[in-house]
Amino acid sequence: MSFLDQMKQRRTIYSISKNVPLAQEKIEEIIKEAVRNSPSAFNSQTSRIVTLYGESHTKFWNIVRETLRKMVPQDAFEKTDAKINSFAAGYGTILFFEDQDVVKSLQEQFSLYADHFPAWSEHSSGIAQFAVWTALAEHHIGASLQHYHPVIDEEVTKTFDIPKNWKLRAQLVFGAIEAPAGEKTFMDDKLRFKTFN
Questions:
Q1: Each residue of 40-68: pLDDT tens digit?
Q2: Which of 16, 52, 73, 113 counts the most CB atoms within 10 A of its CB?
Q3: Domain boundaries, the chain
């Protein structure tokens, strides 16, 4: 399968279950290889990963649920609760962090680019997220990228003993594909691309 085919195969899959076709050890290997080989500014390797399975996966989504319960109006919470249940039904969750100590160190070492390192860190995280998501899709594991930070940060940091300098950027929940992704549409190329000779 070509790289472009792999990109096309990576879709947002919401209907997932715990019946994944791979052993946890193999999934861990895929995640590590994808992140290791993701580029980062100055080869800074700012991305940090925490993968949650079993009780830890369930605990994480309960943190999200209870945090949102305090924020979402009671009459609207049923829909939120159902969404969280769909994520908890998955096999695992990958938490993507960026190490802010590395970012600050780079800012100090390369003052000319100091203002750019926070953005470049975000680029690195996005690339790592895409790489892991695509690598899992290649093995027929469905996933969706979620963003419940920063409201969950304090509780997640405390519960999973996360270093204070790790900043949560995204949550990729994954599992067996129980229903395909919806149809993907594309805007007109004329609105997105320009070519000059």
A1: 999 999 999 999 999 999 999 999 999 99
A2: 16
A3: 3-178
